[in-house]
Amino acid sequence: MSTNRSTSDLTAHLGYWLRYVSNHVSQAFARKVEAHGVTVAEWVLMRQLLDVDALPPSRLAERMGMTRGAITKLADRLLAKSLLTRKPDPVDGRAQTLALTAKGRRLVPELAALADANDSEFFDHLAPKDRAALVRILRDIVEKRGLKSLPVD
Amino acid sequence: MSTNRSTSDLTAHLGYWLRYVSNHVSQAFARKVEAHGVTVAEWVLMRQLLDVDALPPSRLAERMGMTRGAITKLADRLLAKSLLTRKPDPVDGRAQTLALTAKGRRLVPELAALADANDSEFFDHLAPKDRAALVRILRDIVEKRGLKSLPVD
DNA sequence: TATTGTTATACTCTATAACTATA
DNA sequence: TATAGTTATAGAGTATAACAATA
Known about the structure:
2 copies of one chain form a homodimer. Chain A is mainly alpha-helical and 153 residues long. Chain A has helices spanning 14-34, 40-50, 57-64, 68-80, 102-123, 128-144; strands spanning 54-55, 84-88, 96-100. Chain A has one domain (10-144): Orthogonal Bundle (Arc Repressor Mutant, subunit A). In chain A, a hairpin with a 7-residue loop joins strand 2 and strand 3 (96-100). In chain A, helix 3 (57-64) crosses helix 4 (68-80). Chain A binds a DNA duplex (23 and 23 nucleotides) through helix 4.
């Protein structure tokens, strides 16, 4: 945005609107998944594991754009809820392997349904064209700006 | 999004992309303003006060979509940095009045410049049409979904 | 009684840095 | 030495609920 802009014209910042809307959408989603005993961050981690069976914390950290320490903490909580398993890698003695438990795998579709519902709540009123544009533009930013690793790829 | 969607098709969630991009944009902005000793939330609060001179915590809470307690905490920090003043309302003995100090008012344009720079970094590569569409769509969601009060307006 | 603001408490999210075990 | 992971610590960002002062 290299357009001329007065100091007080603050709502012109795209980052501002993005944050504002995103916070509301995420908070609404958080309230929904809370009923299932998980947080949004925990859901994102679980989701990463659905397609791949198992991943080491380091790979999850890359994918989610977080530190390994943060992953450990998230994993600890999911472990305590019996949604995740943590096993030593048989090959590399330093590495660990995180995978969903059966309970975790069962929970994912339920949470996905909540994500669907949340999306509907906030985006269904948009014209299909706008909805498509929004996804396209966001993905474009991720790609072009090289945001830390693509989430699911 | 009432489109048919398989459970594993997770990146189809708009809320997901929104959160992902927004988090990156905000984190980058946070690193920039940090050099000036403030956080993003503090900046948003300061910004609210630029145009209006003074507001009670309750009004700020409405505008920012936060609780009064959260505002108190933010204000405490800005007070400690001499960027804000807190004075009892002369009319209503219960009310307080928050306003920027001269130092605070001086800081706002500097932070606004950083917001500009951050926007540029993430959105300048977009086609002008897409950039406009993004703002329009986001504002539309805020309006139509009635997200807690419009931020500045 | 209702409202304004503050305080107390508690979590989540996340980072940085130190540390352990292994490679 | 370098890497994988964990742990310790800390602070931001919030929320809820209890409380004090005033209306």
